[in-house]
Every structure is written in C-alpha cells, then in structure tokens.
Design a protein that fits this description.
- The chain is mostly beta strands and 159 residues long.
- It has a domain of 103 residues: Beta Barrel (OB fold (Dihydrolipoamide Acetyltransferase, E2P)).
- 11% of the residues lie in helices and 42% in strands.
- It is built from 3 helices and 6 strands, in the order ββββαββαα.
- Strands 1-3-4-6-5 form a 5-stranded mixed barrel.
- The chain starts with 5 loop residues before the first strand and ends in a 10-residue tail after the last helix.
C-alpha cells in the first residue's frame, strides 16, 4: 500500500498567482512557510523555516486567489508531486510541489493584520509564537495514580 499525503500549517509568503489553463480551469500558485522551533545541543532556542510550493486547481484555486494573500495563515492538505521540464538552456529542471486537495483558512486577522469582521479594527495581530503552540518533545507526561495526581491511569485504557 502506498500513501502520499502532506499536511502543513503556515503563512503564505507571496500573493497568489492565478492563471487560466486553455481548458478554462483556474490554477493558483503560491508558497507557504512553516517554522520549526527547537533547542540545540548547547540549550539555545533555534528556529528554521521551510518553504513549500503549493498549486491548486479549479474552485480551490479561485478560493485561494480570493481569500489568501501574503502573511495569511493557512492549513494545506494535499499530495506531493515533482514535475520536470526542459529549460531553455537545455538543462532538465525539477520542482516539487504540494498539489492542494483541501484547505482551511487561518484565523481572521491572521499574520497580515487584516481584521475583516472581527469587530475591532485596532486589535493587533497575534505574534507567530501565539498562533501555533509549540510543545517540546522533552516534556514528560504523567500517567500516575488517578486519585493522587488527577492523571490518567494506564490500567483504565480499554486497549
């Protein structure tokens, strides 16, 4: 069995580029940045960004061009696909993209500060740390006695 699924949550890095195919179908191209926050060996907090190329077709492309712009938070769900083509200089080029199958728009007012319908135009946009909670993998979970610390008793799990 094979499985090709990508799910990312991040911020749009540039305005949507909408084109129309000869068949009349819409195609939207844009990129999304995702951040990774981690602690290095010396204990210092580090952050790195990854950029993902996204392509959407049809009605999804129209929705993207209408509601997404630079800085907006979006959840993208799709499949990973690599295209290749012959460049003008004769070299072979490759581009790996996420072909969007589903999406969810981020909170109104997202990172761009656009507060449409929020009722308060003066409300500041949340910082990047407030938008996506970060959970350190080093944190331990308590599975002690339920009566003692209110935690989950492993013996009560039915599987």
């Amino acid at each position: 069995m094979n499985f090709n699924k990508a799910i990312i949550v991040g911020n749009v890095t540039r305005d949507i580029e909408l084109k129309t195919l000869p068949s009349g179908a819409s195609v939207a191209n844009f990129s999304v940045a995702t951040n990774r926050v981690y602690t290095d060996k010396s204990g210092a907090k580090q952050q790195s960004a990854e950029f993902h190329n996204i392509v959407a077709f049809g009605k999804l492309a129209d929705i993207c061009s209408r509601y997404l712009n630079k800085g907006k938070m979006v959840l993208v769900e799709g499949r990973i696909q690599t295209r290749s083509w012959q460049a003008q200089d004769g070299s072979k080029r490759y581009r790996t993209e996420i072909v969007m199958e589903n999406m969810q728009l981020g909170p109104r007012g997202g990172a761009s500060g656009d507060n449409i319908g929020s009722g308060s135009a003066s409300k500041a946009a949340p910082s990047a740390d407030e938008q996506i909670p970060v959970i350190d993998a080093d944190e331990s979970m308590s599975f002690g006695n339920e009566e003692e610390d209110g935690g989950v008793n492993v013996k009560d799990i039915p599987f």
